[in-house]
Design a protein that fits this description.
single chain; 514 residues; alpha/beta; Aldehyde Dehydrogenase, Chain A, domain 1; Aldehyde Dehydrogenase, Chain A, domain 2; 3 domains; seven-stranded mixed sheet; six-stranded mixed sheet; 22 strands; binds succinic acid
Length: 514
């Protein structure tokens, strides 16, 4: 079986990287990072812990196993929750400045180790090194941002309703937060939540995605080095098989006060139901289905650059990636022609650690099959393939440009999470808005226009939580990240992100005499 897998891996490598010798590639693409950062055990109460079994982490580009990681189960999850709960009573007593200093040290360590941390991302999630380095910059920016925000948590003194009272509204940390994160940003989705939680005075248990535990464990190593006290930051890695039972502990244990999740809407609904029984606070960053609208007044070159960035970031695997391209009749052919040319010159498939690669693999074969299925469906309903159109063996998919796309096709109804760019032609602004808003999702939306009135009209009319106007990539720690409709609840980053981890306590100070 093992030798069959190896042969198949070699066959895949040969298909995707024609002209290179397999042995050269296997040597070239081996994970090589400082041993301290390649952690494979769980991290609970400041200690590295083993579990009864391990699970493999594989490089999605080659199918090669890169590590075996402790497969934590419900018992370890419970241990982590207890440890976080114990640590909460001391961590919340730290002054905001003390917490801020520790977060800043953690940020400095991420910056110091950015190359190795980026390699971990590339090897466990398939991203190019350029994108992995960008993710580490993005990830560390949340620690920096929340180290600053920690000291800016203010309550209120409110005008009282009677003369003998004073009214104060205090902000206090909610307690233990369960943090359940996805594979597409194995580092940044942790720090965006944990930075806010720790700044507020909460402690956390992180369950990283099954495919990408190594980045989370490297973060734990650096948290320890930064001096973050034992029990404040815990990580319980686990396999796909153990995920439901570990998730259940994290969403139902009475000692957990809050659940923060990034992932699919379907999983988010399950976690919300589990958390409901003990009435936990929740923050949910769920699926997207972003429209990208190009109006006749757009600057075509800028629109093409924005489309390329928005669609092909992480090979189309972000929840804010544009999923449906709506292009106005007058500009349609010009835009499509230039977009095709940009795809020809800018996109190169390969292993993420090859500096020439701009598009890595998808996370696994199932993800690639989903994209293939959407392409087949669209073509069977009349779409035309202008570029790509094929799934290669393994989890590589050719960047694909489809035109003559209509709203009855799967690719315009479901989130793709892959390098498929479907173009729908439209005539009027009303028509574009109707198509854009005809979705249960409402995370991000983008449009290109140089008409100032149209810019305000469309921004206000789009039913999404984030709008890019003449910009294809908008995520940043300073701005609020989050959606409306079934794209989720709550906001991350920005001055609002910390509120998810705080309760407001009303203090009525009575019986005062004059
Ligand atoms: C995500 O895809 O979940 C996050 C993307 C981002 O923060 O830009």
């Amino acid at each position: 079986m093992r030798s069959f897998c190896l042969l198949r891996t070699r066959y895949l490598l040969h298909q995707v990287f024609p002209g290179q010798s397999i042995t050269t590639m296997q040597r070239k693409y081996s994970l090589n990072v400082c041993a301290q950062l390649l952690r494979t055990q769980g991290y609970i109460d400041g200690h590295w812990i083993s579990a009864a079994s391990t699970f493999p982490v594989v490089d999605p580009a080659t199918g090669e196993e890169i590590a075996k990681v402790a497969d934590c189960g419900p018992a370890e999850a419970k241990q982590a929750v207890d440890s976080a709960h114990k640590a909460f009573y001391t961590w919340k007593q730290y002054t905001a400045k003390e917490r801020s200093v520790l977060l800043r040290k953690w940020f400095d360590l991420l910056t110091l180790h950015k190359e190795d941390l980026a390699k971990l991302i590339t090897f466990e999630c398939g991203k190019t090194m350029k994108e992995s380095l960008a993710e580490i910059a993005y990830s560390s920016s949340f620690l920096e941002w929340f180290s600053e925000q920690a000291r800016r948590v203010y309550g209120d003194i409110v005008q009282p309703n009677t003369r003998d009272r004073r009214i104060l509204l205090l902000k206090q940390p909610v307690g233990v937060a369960s943090v359940i994160t996805p594979w597409n940003f194995p580092s940044a989705m942790i720090t965006r939540k944990v930075g806010a939680a720790l700044a507020a005075g909460c402690t956390v248990v992180v369950k990283p995605a099954e495919d990408t535990p190594l980045s989370a464990l490297a973060l734990a190593e650096l948290a320890g080095q930064a001096g973050i006290p034992a029990g404040v930051f815990n990580v319980v890695p686990c396999s796909r098989e153990k995920t439901p039972s570990v998730g259940e502990v994290l969403c139902t244990d009475p000692l957990v006060a809050m659940v923060s999740f990034t992932g699919s809407t379907a999983t988010g609904k399950i976690l919300l139901k589990q958390a409901a029984d003990t009435v936990k606070k929740t923050s949910m960053e769920l699926g997207g289905h972003a429209p990208f609208i190009v109006f006749d007044s757009a600057d075509v070159d800028k629109a093409v650059a924005g489309a390329m960035a928005s669609k092909f970031r992480n090979s189309g695997q972000t929840c804010v990636c544009s999923n449906r391209f709506l292009v106005q009749n007058g500009i349609h052919d010009h835009f499509v022609k230039k977009l095709g040319q940009a795809m020809d010159t800018e996109l190169r498939l390969g292993h993420g650690s090859d500096p020439n690669t701009t598009q890595g693999p998808l996370i696994n074969v199932r993800a690639a099959q989903k994209v293939e299925n959407q392409i087949t469906d669209a073509v069977s309903r009349g779409a035309t393939v202008l570029r790509g159109g094929k799934r290669l063996d393994g989890s590589f998919v050719q960047p694909t440009l489809l035109v003559d796309v209509t709203t009855d096709m799967l690719c315009t109804q479901q989130e793709t999470f892959g390098p498929l760019l479907p173009v729908i032609r439209f005539n009027t602004e009303e028509e574009a808005l109707a198509i854009a808003n005809a979705s249960q999702m409402g995370l991000a939306g983008y449009f290109y226009s140089q008409d100032i009135s149209q810019i305000w009209r469309v921004t206000e009319a789009l039913e999404v939580g984030m709008v890019g106007v003449n910009e294809g990539i908008i995520s940043t720690s300073e701005a609020s990240f989050g959606g409306v409709k079934q794209s989720g609840l709550g906001r991350e980053g920005s001055k609002y992100g910390i509120d998810e981890y705080l309760d407001v306590k009303y203090m009525c100070f009575g019986g005062l005499t004059h």
